[in-house]
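Give me structure tokens for this 182-residue protein.
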Amino acid sequence: AKTDFFSNISHEFRTPLTLILGLLEELLKKQDQEINKESKQTVETTHRNALRLLRLVNNLLDFSKIEAGREKARFQLLDISKFTRELASSFSSLIENAGLSYHIDVEDVSRPVYVDRVMWEKIVLNLLSNAFKYSLKGSVTISLKEFDQFVLLKVADTGIGIPAEELPNMFQRFHLVQNMAA
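Here you go.
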């Protein structure tokens, strides 16, 4: 029932979001003389947030597929170093504008790696998002290194950290640490 609920609600949310995004994109296409600068900035911000909401809705849909056993990893050979650098660079201005230092230490891996591109993107972006969210000062570092036949992805930050008693819960789906001051 839970899986069906997530699946149904995701589909129901996508329709109005698609319509909203279409209207926002039409407004963004307007020339500067047709829409003032302040309004355009508001539309751009709304558009970015609507896209983020659509990604979250799509994640709900993905979750329901995984729960139902219908979602399978789609592995492909990938230049994981290049892809990870591209993902990491999308956080550069956000992190640096917040006054944090940001280090991308992604080594070139000697050969392509089999990875599910979509899942890897979700992992990297989620780790970076959390590192940024919980680091009020200091730095965020992402590194990718090759060890024998493996690669090791590491995201480190100077944020508040995870209490030791919460570490056993780290890989429980959707577990949130309570009373964490960001």
